Amino acid sequence: MFEDAGERAGIYRFSVDLGSLPTSKPYSRTFHLSGLPRANFVPYLIVEDASIQNRVDHVYSDWESSACTIAVHCGGDLVVEQQAPLTDWIVCSGRMLYHLDLNFDASLEARYDLTISLDSSVTEFPTHKLVLLGGGWQDYATNHLHFPDDYP
Questions:
Q1: Nearest to 72 by CA among 80, 64, 62
Q2: Which of 9, 60, 99, 116 is positioned for an S-S bond with 64, CB 3.0–4.6 A?
């Protein structure tokens, strides 16, 4: 589901909810994306788990040792890729909202393949979903309005 919060959105004007992911491990899932607005996007993994206070206290759940890989391809070319256990991901907004230091510039005309893979020694993972957030007058990477074709 795609949502546009409007041009007055300070950050994360655009939201692309890619939906729930499997709770059994391991898995790999690819999403085919097109028509993304010209903006910088950050993939987030939203996990529904009551142990957020544990994370604040630097105590991790066993499922957080799971290695997660996110890769974005455009026209067969790798745009960005990163792999890390969830313990290395950044948790923000006072909830289990994970992201790596990973972002990519989207263009309306381009078609993207976003692949998420989760490899884990635990058999069950909490309910989670993948969301792309981007755009707004304060861009994630540069803290100002930024479009991929603004720079040479």
A1: 80
A2: 60
Residue among 77, 82, 70 at smallest CA distance from 130? 70
Residue pair 107/148 in contact by the 8 Å Cβ criterion? yes
Segment 121-133 mean pLDDT: 78
Taking only the tens place, the pLDDT of each residue in 31-62 is 999 999 988 898 888 887 656 555 656 666 77
Per DSSP, what are the bridge partners of residue 32?
113
Cα distances (Å, whole numbers) of residue 70 to 29, 88, 131, 135, 150: 10, 14, 12, 20, 26
CA–CA distance, 85 with 59 (Å, rounded to integer): 14
Question: Which pLDDT score is estimated for 148?
Answer: 46
Tally of CB atoms within 10 A around 91: 17
Domain spanning 2-139, CATH class: mainly beta
Residue 43 CB partners (closer than 8 Å, separation 6+): 70, 72, 99, 100, 102, 114, 116, 130, 131, 132
Residues of the chain with pLDDT > 70, as a percent, come to: 72
Nearest to 86 by CA among 45, 31, 48, 123: 45
